[in-house]
Design a protein that fits this description.
Blueprint (H helix, E strand, L loop, with lengths): L6 H5 L5 H6 L1 H6 L5 H20 L8 H20 L6 E3 L3 E3 L10 H12 L18 H11 L3 E5 L2 H13 L3 E5 L5 E2 L3 E2 H8 L2 E5 L7 H7 L4 E7 L15 H11 L3 E6 L17 H6 L4 E5 L10 E5 L1 H9 L2 H4 L4 H13 L3 H7 L1 H6 L3 H19 L3 E13 L8 E10 L4 H10 L3 E3 L1 E3 L2 E5 L7 H14 L3
Helix pairs in contact: 4-5, 6-15, 7-15, 8-9, 8-13, 18-20
The protein binds pyridoxal-5'-phosphate.
Amino acid sequence: MEKKIKPTEKLRMLPAVDEVLRIRQIAALLTENPRSIIVKAVREALDSCRKLILKGEDIGSTNEQVLDEVVKITLNNILKLARPKLRPVINATGVVLHTNLGRALLGENARRAVQMAATGYTNLEMDLVTGKRGSRYAAVENILTELTGAEAALVVNNNASAVLLALGTLAGGKEVIVSRGQLVEIGGSFRIPDVMVQSGAILVEVGSTNKTYPSDYQRAITGETGLLLQVHTSNYRIVGFTRETTIAELVQLGQEYDLPVMSDLGSGFLVDLSHYGLPKEPTVQEVVAGGADVVTFSGDKLLGGPQAGIIVGRKKYIDLMKKNPLTRAVRIDKFTVAALEATLREYLEPELALKRIPTLRMLTADPEELERRAGSLAEELTAAVKDLADIGLEKGFSRVGGGAMPTAELPTTLITILPKYISLDELMKRLREHNPAMIGRARDDKLLLDVRTVQAGEEEIIIEAICNCLEGGA
Ligand SMILES: *Cc1c(COP(=O)(O)O)cnc(C)c1O
C-alpha cells in the first residue's frame, strides 16, 4: 500500500527548469530549436503539472515519475510551439475560393515561377535587351492587354487597393456616381462608401436598391462629377423586380458628358464558365469591349492566380495611376509578378487553362468524376475507421466562395461521417488541430467531406487524420 502524499509535498517534487533542460531528449532538441522555445515549453509543462497536482490528480509518486511526466508534456509542448503558425490545411469543405483558407491555389507553372523568383536573382526591374532599368510591371502588362483587349494595364497589391488607387487618381476631390444597389461590402470591411472616403472622392448615390436607370445617373451629373462607377455585386444578388444600368448605357452617358466610366468587377474572369453549369457573368474582355475606361478585378478570385489587384483600361488613365505615389505604396512583389505572369500565360490556351489552373479545374470538375472519387474514398474510409464511425454518401452542392457567384450551386457527392463515440464538435476540433489540419462541413451530427476541393494525393492523409482523430486526438 502506497503512502498518501499531500499535494503541497508533491509540488516540491517538481523539477527545476534547468534540470529538465539537462535531460538528454530535451537537450538534443536544443540543436534544432531556439532555446527560448524549449525553455517556454518546459515552463508551461511545469505549470500544467502544478495545476494537475493541485487538482489532486496523480502524476507519479516518485521524483523520477514526476520528472518523466514533465518531460513528456514538455516534448508535446515543443512540438506545438516549434511548428509554424501558418500550416497546411486540407480543404474538404467544397468551397473552392475559401477566403479563410487562402483563396486560390496556384497551378504548377505558377508555383515553379515563384520558386524561381525566390531562389535566384531575376530581371524584376531590368530590361535585359538594353541593360537599363526596366519596369516590374513589364512581365504582366503586355499579356494583360493581349488577353483583355485593353490599351494598358497595371497590377497592385489587391483589388481593394486597385479601387482605391483608381478612385483617388481619377476622381480625388470630385464626385463619383454609383447606384444604390451596388454599395457593396466585401468581407474584411471593404465597403464602397468607406473606400470612397479614403480615396478623397465624394460618393453620390443614385437610384434605388433594386432599380437604377440611366436617367438617374444623368440627373446627378454636375460640373463636380469625376467618374461614373459600376460595382459588380459579386457577393450578393438582387432578384425580382430589378433594373441595373448596363455598362453600355453608362459608357454612352460617359461619352456624352466626357466622363470616364469605371467597372469594379471584383472577381473578373477571362473565360466564360457558363458552359460548365456556372452562372453567366461578364468576362473582363466583354466589359473592356463594352467601352469601360477602367476595369478592376482580383488576381486570386476566379482568375486563380496570386493575390493582386489588376487594373486594365485606357492608357491615359492607367498612366495617371502609374504616376500616383500611392502606386508605390501598394506595389506588387516579385513573387506576385512571377505567379501572375505564369497564371496569365495559361489563359493563352483557354482549354488548357481549365485543366492547369486549380481554381478552374475544381469549378469545372465533372460531377461523375466527383461521384467516383467520393465513392472510392468512402470505401477506404469505411474499412479504415472500423466501428468508430458510420460512413455514407449523399448528393449535395459545392460553392464557389471568395464572395463570387453567391447563388451558384455546383452538384457534387459528399461523404458523410457519423462519429459513434465522440461528438461531432470534438471530431472537428481534433481535425483542426491535427497535422496537417483538415476542415470539412458540419450538418446535424455528421461531418461532410466534399472531394471537389481535395487535392491529388490528399486522400491518404484524410484517411489517416480521420482515424487518428476518431481514436484519440491529434
Ligand atoms: C473582392 C472584391 C473586392 C476586393 O478585392 P480584394 O482582391 O479582396 O482586395 C473589391 N470589389 C469587389 C466587387 C469584390 O468582389
